């Protein structure tokens, strides 16, 4: 749990540098994510929250620095090792990124089909179990993504991310674009799942309510650096942006 | 490496303990998604015997995830259904929340995925496609009417609604920028036509007639057709993609709320622009094709350029040239119209842009060839 010891670091980022052209986005940032915690990543628009997430999951070429996941430097992995790691994490993209030509049930079964030799009946059972875990009704299974609302797509995307019972789940703005009630339900869902499946959650978000409701620690991206702490620690941080963020009108409302 | 993961060296397994009237399933090791497939097969082949009571004991498990938990829950439900009395599943304390989540939140029957390749589904698809095709036909007909009215209004009663800058941009984009590819392909078609003609006509000693073949064939039919097909692939698809992307971004909706007539702003410049560009391109294609034919005639048959010109003058009348040219604006109208129409049909998702762009190209090439055949019949009846 938060503040855990060295052995429990599942993601270790050291000296990460990212940027576009002349502009530097991350300037030698360090970050540890502990097993079983929910880490929220916040920052203003364009501070590279999503880029940080994409760097860790290997979708973004980094300029320099090292990223270790489960103790492996992701730079030194061969294809088989990557697969091994990819099997142990799940990613929920902003709009769900469901495969549009497949039904929701088939979407959830894609990782199962890719990584396990399960029979079709068992995959059907697992898919419906995941659906009820993320709170989707049974009749969503045969639908195509285009027939679902934004909130349902996110839940379905989460079900797919959870298909293989990963150890880490990456969530990219999970509550953006949801109405407050759906957003609350999503927060509770993340918290419930995190407890029952003992997940480590790495969550990029703008939503102060989500941060308060779900996260153990928060990483703030400011001035191309990263500041990590609990919400109360961050409230005491003198940096003007952090002050504005947590103690501005919205920040106080969420408290 | 995490400690939890190293433990996967201990594989998933279970053993059955049978006592009189009591059946015990003792699960051991690591029950996770990785081994779910083999566990699934083994669990389904357990012989229940004549026991009336059963017990599932997972207290010796090292690790379990939701797939493993599901297998235990499923086994329990299955046995209950077969009339065994069975107590709660025993599980290490740290996995109780997980077990609870799987057992109590998930009670629905499993998903059934319908096979989409049955005869019934096939008949349904054919029916839907037929109705869709008819609706599409009606839609495009109405659209042709609307655009025709707007175009003729723009020409006969100009009220300043023709966007000149956009029009010029379209002429540049669809006309001038297409010069290299139309030129090269027309030249090559001329070469091929002359080569094939010379090859066949040589046998009758009528080599000189190759010039007639190239001249009449190109000017009357092929140059116009090949240009229209290239433009349909190049510009018709671009129209659909551009307008479709604007639809996805809600730009068209924004235009409508501001009060801009989308036909004026998007369709007219493209239709009129292409109607100007395509005849010019066709003329250019005529010339490049003849050049290709002349070059081939010179190298293959030794017909010099002046000879070629003389022969061309006797064999090709102005009418032949005009027959080819008169079709170009009609093709242009159809290509631009289909391109814009399909673009406006795009739904608000990116996949639909790709789908409709493909459809737009196929439809406009189809219509161009059908129209060309229609023209041929008309001209032969008129005796031109």
Structural write-up:
- The complex is a heterodimer of chains A (255) and B (384).
- Chain A is 38% helix and 25% strand.
- By secondary structure, chain A is of the alpha/beta class.
- In chain A, the strands form 2 sheets. Chain A has a 6-stranded mixed β-sheet, sandwiched between helices. In chain A, strands 2-1-4-5 form a 4-stranded antiparallel β-sheet, with helices on one face.
- In chain A, a hairpin with a 2-residue loop joins β9 (217-222) and β10.
- Chain A starts with 8 loop residues before the first strand and ends with a helix.
- With 384 residues, chain B is an alpha/beta fold.
- The longest helix of chain B is centred in the middle third of the chain and has 40 residues, at 209-248.
- In chain B, strands 1, 2, 3, 4 and 5 form a 5-stranded mixed β-sheet that branches.
- Chain B has helices spanning 3-6, 33-44, 66-81, 96-105, 119-156, 164-174, 179-201, 209-248, 251-258, 262-301, 305-315, 318-345, 350-382, and strands at 13-19, 22-31, 53-57, 61-64, 85-86.
- Chain B is 71% helix and 7% strand.
- The A-B interface holds A 7, 10, 35, 70-72, 88, 100, 103, 105-106, 112, 115-122, 124-133, 138, 141-142, 146, 162, 164-165, 167, 192, 195-198 and B 1-5, 32-34, 36-38, 40-41, 65-67, 70, 74, 94, 97-98, 100-102, 105-114, 349, 351.
Roughly what is the average pLDDT of chain A, rounded to an integer?
83
Q: Evaluate the radius of gyration of chain A.
A: 18 Å
In terms of DSSP E residues, the strand content of chain A is 15-25%
Kindly, what is the distance between the CA atoms of the first and last residues of chain B, rounded to a whole number of angstroms?
84 Å
Beta strands of chain B, count: 5
User: Could you list the spans of chain B in which at least 5 consecutive residues all have pLDDT below 50?
Assistant: 1-8
Q: Radius of gyration of chain B from the CA trace?
A: 36 Å
Low-confidence stretches of chain A: none
Regarding quaternary structure, how should these chains be classified?
A: heterodimer
Distance between the termini of chain A: 23 Å
Shape of chain A: globular
Shape of chain B from CA axes? elongated
Tell me the series of helices and strands of chain A, N- to C-terminal. Answer: EEEHEEHEHHHEHEHEEHHH
Number of helices of chain A: 10
**Strands across the major sheet of chain A, in which order?**
6-7-8-3-9-10
Q: What is the average of the pLDDT values of chain B?
A: 86
| Helix proportion of chain A | 25-40%
